[in-house]
Specification:
The chain has helices at 8-13, 16-30, 33-48, 59-68, 73-77, 88-98, 100-119. Helix 2 packs antiparallel against helix 3. The chain has 127 residues and is an all-alpha fold. It is built from seven helices and no strands. 65% of the residues lie in helices and 0% in strands. The termini are far apart.
Length: 127
């Protein structure tokens, strides 16, 4: 299949409506979540440079990609740039799904500390 990707010139010059249409069509044709996230991140940069019409662009597509697809390296790398697209409880569950090893480590450390606290005598400040 001949993939037609967007150039930097297109990403920084086309209107939001055209970009939304092209990026959405690209994603549904190829299911390439990594490149789609990179495109949307580029539009976030365009928003940060002053283009107000790009605030929360393709919010539904971003939510669908992060919530329904397997986490790719690009998704993990750019994960925190999309925090404002999700509510706090969604963000916590999504972080646990995207970074399962890190969360396992944090839970293991927490469990070990709680078990040690039960058998360790209480500390006092008396000499």
């Amino acid at each position: 299949m001949n993939e037609q990707t967007l150039t930097c010139r297109q990403l920084f010059n086309l209107t939001p409506k055209t970009l939304e249409k092209r990026i959405t069509e690209y994603y549904y044709q190829t299911q390439n979540s990594s490149l789609t996230i990179k495109y949307i991140l580029t539009l976030r940069v365009r928003f940060q440079l002053g283009a107000e019409e790009f605030a929360f662009i393709l919010k539904d597509l971003v939510r669908e990609i992060f919530m329904n697809t397997k986490a790719t390296r690009a998704m993990k790398r750019f994960f925190y740039y999309f925090q404002d697209y999700f509510m706090a409880p969604e963000w916590r569950s999504l972080a646990a799904r995207v970074f399962p090893v890190r969360n396992f480590g944090e839970k293991a450390v927490s469990l070990v500390r709680s078990l040690i606290a039960k058998v360790r005598p209480a500390e006092t400040n008396e000499p």
